[in-house]
Amino acid sequence: MMKRVGMRRAGAGNEELEGAIDIVFLLLIFFVLTSSFQVLVGSKIKPPKKVDEELVIDNHKDIVLKIDSLSQVVVIYQQHEYPIVGDALFQDGKEKLSAFLSASRDAKVVVFADYDSPFGVVNTIELICTHLGVSPYICYERGKT
C-alpha cells in the first residue's frame, strides 16, 4: 500500500465557519421577522388646470422665489428681496413663506429655477409649499435667474 502524503480531507477546517454562517442566517431571519416597515405617504400636489395657461404674477400679492445655479434662494415679495439662508433652507424658507402667506391669503407661489439649479433645492421649496398648503408654480428657465 502506498501512503498518501500531503492530502487533506475535503471540508477540513470549515467547522468554525459553518457555525458562524448558521448564526449569521439566524440573526438575519430574526431581524427580518422582528422589523417593522413604515409606508410613506406622498403629498398630493394640485397642478394647474391647463398646462399651457399663461401665468400672470401680481407684484403686490404674489410670492416669487428665484433659485440660481449656486443654490441661492431669494424670495421676492412686494418688490423686495429676502434671501433665504442656504444652511437652514427648510426652516428659514418655511418661516419666511408662512409669514408672507399669512399677510396675503390668496397669493400664488411662483418658483423660477435655472436649469442648472440643484433639484434638491427645488424639491425642498416644493416640500415647504406643500407643508404650508400651497401648490407652487415651478418654472424652469435657462440662465435667467
Low-confidence stretches: none
At the first level of CATH, what is the class of the domain at 63-141?
Alpha Beta
Distance between the termini: 91 Å
Helix content: 25-40%
Give the helices and strands as they follow along the chain.
HEEEHEHE
Strand fraction band?
A: 15-25%
Provide the residue-averaged pLDDT.
77
Radius of gyration: 29 Å
Profile the largest sheet.
5 strands, mixed
Kindly report the CATH topology of the domain at 63-141: Nucleotidyltransferase, domain 5
Q: Rough shape?
A: elongated
Number of helices: 3
Question: Structural class given helices, strands, pairing?
Answer: alpha/beta
Within the largest sheet, what's the order of strands?
3-2-1-4-5
Number of strands: 5
Corresponding CATH architecture of the domain at 63-141: 2-Layer Sandwich
Short description:
By secondary structure, this protein is an alpha/beta fold. It has helices spanning 15-34, 89-103, 119-131, and strands at residues 63-67, 73-77, 80-84, 109-114, 137-141.
